[in-house]
Amino acid sequence: MSAVLNTVYNNYLSAYARKPLTRYDAHKKSELRSVYSSIVKMNRDAPWYLPTTSKATQNYAVDLKENARGLYNTIAQLGGLEENGLFSKKSAFSSDEDVLTAAYIGPEDAASASPSLDVEIRSLASAQENLGLFLADEKSGLAPDTYSFDLAVNEMNYEFQFSVNGDETNREIQERLVRLLNNSGIGISADIVESDGSSAIRLTSESTGLAQDKTMQFSVSDDRTSKTPGTVAYFGLDYVSRIPSNAEIVVNGESRTAKSNHFTVGKMFDLTLRGVTEEGSAVHVGLKTDVESLTDNITHLVGGYNEFIKAASSYVDTQAKSRQLVRELKGIALVYGSPLQSIGFTMAEDGTLDVDRDALRQTAGQTNDIAGTFGYLKNFSDMLLRKSSQVSLNPMDYVEKTVVAYKNPGHNFISPYATSAYSGMMFNGYC
Q1: Cα dihedral 91, 96, 101, 106 sign
Q2: CB 135 within 8 A of CB 207
Q3: Residue intervals in the chain for CATH 2.60.40
Q4: Residue 317: DSSP 8-state
């Protein structure tokens, strides 16, 4: 039973955990209890309504939750959960962002030490690639039957079954296998490679690098499969054309390896490798000035707001109440319209904001009281936090619903999971 549950759980995460998680997606018991209490309070007097059966509406509700989470996490990462964090959060710079990008994740009290890194990138972490045999687009040599093969990845084994008809071509079967593998969401991507009128299946692991004592990311076989074997040899699915490898770097003179091209160093910097440095040269990573850090923080805050309002606006033609959410978001920005405009903000007709970074730098550089000068931005971010929390708790507020009955105020049973019955118990990427 444990193996079955692991398989189901891994399939769920592979299919739905598309957005990157942050440390703000992990919560203490007290925080989860607070969320539960908020849901109980919200649903105490909420009316009963018919659950929606529209897949489009269900996707819309989950998408609202996910975008609300994204906005909340953006503000949290900028220090918006703290009193003056939005103005003191440091930003990192890289001397060559085409090769390496960096973000500062260390404590603010360490800023006085001016932490810095010199990173030499000798090789990037690579994924495993299997390239099959190139076959002509003609009638398949496989006899009509039900075939299967096994694919082992991340210590999990998956069996894929498919049928072959007598009149199918090699290309048709290849395309069907590619769809089957990509739809499975097990951490392997498949595509078709063409050469001189022939085609082959290419399998690539979504993960890079190798764990200790491992030689491959995945393996393909049909030696012990339940249905007819033979497709692995026929399509050449087991040929490893590229062996996975770890990244090799030198940080401040110390050689290191990493399974991924995205990792942290010393709990200070979050690094993403994008290329290889020239021999004998290194990329310098350090902290930006206070003015540049403040400018980056405000720009990222506006970026999170813009992404949220664009997501809501994309449903205006299909979900009538999404207009209400767009109006509410625009209303939050309009409350601070005049002070925002004075430092270089402009609002477009769709409600998105644009930032003049030069004007922002000039304002920040001319004041000795950052908190006082930009205090309204803290209020702006607080209002966005409250709105994102509200949408996360109950996205069905912005869905057209048919009310069945209103509860008797003050004399009803608690229904904490009412919203879950309509919009899904689990979020699209975490629970």
Answers
A1: negative
A2: no
A3: 127-242
A4: T
One-letter amino acid at 12 equals Y
CATH number of 127-242: 2.60.40
Question: Splitting the chain (431 residues) into consecutive groups of 10 residues, what average pLDDT does each group show?
Answer: 44 48 68 76 74 80 87 82 72 94 80 79 96 95 95 92 92 96 93 95 95 90 94 96 96 94 91 94 91 87 92 91 93 87 86 88 79 80 90 85 75 61 44 41
Question: Which residues, 6+ apart, have CB-to-CB distance to 335 below 8 Å?
Answer: 380, 383
* Distance of alpha carbon 397 from alpha carbon 419, whole angstroms: 10
Look at the block and give the residue holding tokens 């205090």: 375
- The 10 Å Cβ neighbour count of residue 260 is 14
The edge-to-edge listing of strands for the beta sheet with 156-164 is 156-164, 145-153, 218-221
Answering whether pTM is above 0.90, one says no
How many angstroms separate the CA atoms of 205 and 244, rounded?
A: 9
Q: What φ, ψ does residue 333 adopt, rounded to 5°?
A: -70, -35
Per the CB < 8 A criterion, the answer to whether 277 and 120 are in contact is: yes
Taking CB atoms within 8 Å and a gap of at least 24, the contacts of 295-299 are: 295/357, 295/360, 295/361, 295/364, 296/91, 297/78, 297/79, 297/86, 297/87, 297/89, 297/91, 298/86, 298/355, 298/360, 298/374, 298/377, 299/355, 299/357, 299/360
